[in-house]
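DNA-binding Xre family transcriptional regulator, pasting as requested.
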Amino acid sequence: MSRVVVIKLKELLSAKGMTIRKLSRLSDVRHSAICDLTNQKRINVHVHHLARIADALDIDDMNEIITFEKIED
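Structure tokens follow.
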């Protein structure tokens, strides 16, 4: 069994009624980077991007943004 990283931005944005574009403006992270994170298309995640996104979404617990899930091999 192995694990995958899951970025939960789609759920967070929906819950907060926020668009990717608005999050991009508030966090000063490129729209395309947030779009890729939201759609699980980005392999590398910059820690400073996560910090800016957390600030913009007023999140203190990184587990609200990123988690690990077990997958069967």
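Note for the archive: The longest strand covers residues 2-7.
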